[in-house]
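Minutes, project huddle
Topic: does the predicted pose make sense with hexanoyl-coenzyme A bound?
PN asked that the exact inputs be recorded in the minutes so nobody has to dig through chat later. Recorded below.
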Amino acid sequence: MAYETIIVEIEDEVALIRLNRPEALNALNATLLDELSAALTEADRNDKVRCIVLTGSEKAFAAGADIKEMAQKSFVDAYGGDLFGPQIDTISRIRKPIIAAVSGYALGGGCELAMACDFIIAAENAKFGQPEINLGVIAGIGGTQRLTRFVGKSKAMDMNLTGRFMDAAEAERSGLVSRVVPTPKLVSEALSAARKIAEKSQISVMAAKESVNRSYETTLREGLLFERRAFQSMFATEDQKEGMAAFLEKREAQFRDR
Ligand code: HXC
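Predicted holo structure (tokens), as shared on screen:
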């Protein structure tokens, strides 16, 4: 499918989605968010895709929601139209893993979009921030909620109240990103992580993603029970037999998602 604001390539069972509004540092306008939701939904349904990488350009992952498009909106437009709600809900319902590969600015909605993915790999030049406070608003799709769970209250307050940016080293130190890689290698490193995931049994990948995400939604006791039941249910799969037999026979496992 042809898109206006994103580029989608599928290779080696990985869908690479690039945000592509270079004139606006990939600011998230309605078209981009709708196209991204559609592309992610399509990748989730496509049997040839086992993992997704979401990236931007070297200068910007995304510099936030499109300020030009938002500036004239009224409360009725925003609340009545559930501004950004449907698209971000779609992203959080995708069952295949999504890696955010962040280079340059990930600000406001850009930082929030990266956090809505399953994990973030950052380039050395990455800069994260929730500068909405400078525009007389606040974060709207996770900047006060997901960021707090990633980096804790003190840093989340600092970022949301002062609007300052965090560089890649601080983001890694504080747990916002899983790893930092040299800027020119960002996409190849993210694709190589995605290919590694694509080799696993998709059933166990989905169960692992669902179980980690469950930890945000429930108590420790309930989360541990969810995880244990999911773990136990893996013994109903052929892939569990294959994975363990392969280990014992000292060979590579051939998973079949069954
Ligand atoms: C619309 C944007 C934009 C944005 C940049 N541009 N960010 N357009 N919305 N969020 C446009 C600029 O207007 C400019 O277009 C072009 O991209 C290049 O940007 P410059 O500012 O000239 O680049 P630079 O000097 O390098 O500064 C980069 C920057 C700055 C520090 C990232 O652009 C910036 O502060 N952007 C806004 C960041 C922000 O406040 N984000 C939060 C948005 S609110 P022209 O046409 O002038 O060349 C938000 C709410 C989230 O995200 C709520 C839920 C989604």
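Observations noted during the meeting:
- The pocket of hexanoyl-coenzyme A is lined by residues 24-25, 27, 63-68, 84, 105, 107-109, 112, 131-132, 135, 139-141 (CB under 6 Å).
- The two ends are 30 Å apart (CA to CA).
No decisions taken; revisit at the next huddle.
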